[in-house]
Amino acid sequence: MRLLKWLIRTVVFIGLAVAVTFGLLFLYFRIFNNVGQRVQRVVMHDVAVRHEHYMTYNQIPTVFRNAMIATEDRRFFTDPGIDPIGIMRSFIVDVEKDGYVEGGSTITQQLVDNSIIVHRKTIPYKITQAFYAIGIYDTQSKPETFALYANAIYFGAGAYGLYDAAETYFGKTPSQLNDGELTMLAGLPNLPSLFDPFIHLKLARQRQAIVLQNMVDDGLITSKQSSAIYREPIRLK
User: Fold this and answer.
1) Residue ranges of the domains in the chain?
2) For 164-207, how does the pLDDT look when each residue is reduced to its tens digit (9 = 90+)?
3) Burial status of residue 127 (CB atoms within 10 A of its CB: 0-12, 13-18, 19 or more)
4) What is the pLDDT of residues 204-217, one digit of tens each?
5) Exposure string (b/e) for 65-93, b if CB count within 10 Å is 16 or more?
């Protein structure tokens, strides 16, 4: 009798292991293996519809890249599309508050939100978002991912993507902006309506100061350089 029970348990365990394995393989080939291409098609299509210029990674000013990564996802180049530390922190907060409260989203997850799924404040949505983010990590390089993000993210005032934001707020191309203007733009996607410099310039400047401090904390610039950048003129359109 004991032997029969052991055999039954073994068969069930093997069956479950096989089912999980095939389930993961199914997810990989149906989701992970093509999600990067799906996101790329959506972003490129949206840029074309807006008649904007798509910026490659190397065309995006270095200061802006550093500012965004230091502020939005400082482990961007090492994380697998998701930030386990951030997810655990946000999960604990969500459970304590009995609902979706805190984000903890990486740049890759934000790219998912701005391309192939609709942002919803639910835990199931967050799980789906994480799966897609890992899929992008598995199929796209980090520079490719950042370029898609910079061309898709919303900056407020109807501006999507860095090129559109530079024209909307300053009437210039990104390459024509000074470091002060670039770091201000890097702070807008967090809360575009609140930090809209056309309406709330003081708040936008306060947010810029936070971005610069993040860059100092990450060793990207010195405190002296941060002060010099903050003093650069902000010439709104």
Assistant:
1) 35-230
2) 999 999 999 999 999 999 999 999 999 999 999 999 999 999 99
3) exposed
4) 999 999 999 999 99
5) bbbbbbbbbbebeebebbbeebbeebeee
Q: Are 162 and 186 in contact (CB under 8 A)?
A: no
Buried b (16+ CB within 10 A) or exposed e, 150-163: bbbbbbbbebbbbb
Rounded to whole angstroms, the Cα distance separating 152 from 189 reads 11
Question: Which residue matches tokens 């407020």?
Answer: 156
- The pTM for the full model equals 0.81
For 7-53, the pLDDT digits (tens) are: 667 766 676 665 565 566 556 555 566 888 889 999 999 999 888 89
Instruction: For domain 35-230, give the fold.
Output: Penicillin binding protein transpeptidase fold (1.10.3810)
* Closest by CA position to 155, among listed 134, 170, 138: 170
